[in-house]
Amino acid sequence: MTETPTVPGSADYWDHRYVSIGDTKVSWFQDEPAIGIELIGQVADHNASVVDVGGGASRLVDHLLSAGFRDLTVVDLSQEALNAAYHRVGEAPVAWVVSDVRDWQPDRTFDVWHDRAAYHFLTDAVDQQAYWQLVRDSVPHGGHVVIATFAEDGPEQCSGLPIRRYSAAELEQAMGEGFTVLDTRREQHITPTGGTQSFGWLLAQRT
Ligand SMILES: C[S@@+](CC[C@H](N)C(=O)[O-])C[C@H]1O[C@@H](n2cnc3c(N)ncnc32)[C@H](O)[C@@H]1O
Prior knowledge:
Shape: globular
Low-confidence stretches: none
CATH architecture: 3-Layer(aba) Sandwich
Largest sheet: 7 strands, mixed
Number of helices: 6
Radius of gyration: 16 Å
Bound molecules: S-adenosylmethionine
């Protein structure tokens, strides 16, 4: 890992955030990712395959393992983030994939696609459209998407990087064809330093 990452948003940049701040001190840390767990639980049981895109060192995987899920994949740019999660859960039925989601070409499909605060870093329209095409290709009809971004009244940056904020309607529009929205949520996330960040969540079915 480089001492001073030069390219904002690069793998080095994210590695540096996780190592220099600590995975439980980063602004997005949640000990219990309650809304993600609840929305996944609405549509899937422990037999489902779940991918957490931009999952980083999130505790979602720990909770899903405890609930009996046995087909889990976590994709992230940051090797350091995945190392932290791997060392926490130990040998477990989890595929850890170090990749930029923009380059990732999964050779399988998933019943549930989960993304909390990764998609919103895609500020380029071409990247956004490619992301939703990847979801369409990776989630079969009948499968589900659980996604959270900063809401329209949320911060304009995340982890020092520009992001795109979405209302529920804007996120539904961004998804494009092939999804039916089943539920939406708002969340006031409390950061480890006591700040508040407004998130919007969306649960959709691939149709
Ligand atoms: C704000 S954090 C959220 C992490 C996790 N989802 C959570 O809720 O704890 C954003 C994560 O997305 C990852 N990330 C950012 N851009 C990415 C990209 N283009 N492809 C894959 N991962 C990315 C970062 O490394 C980081 O782990």
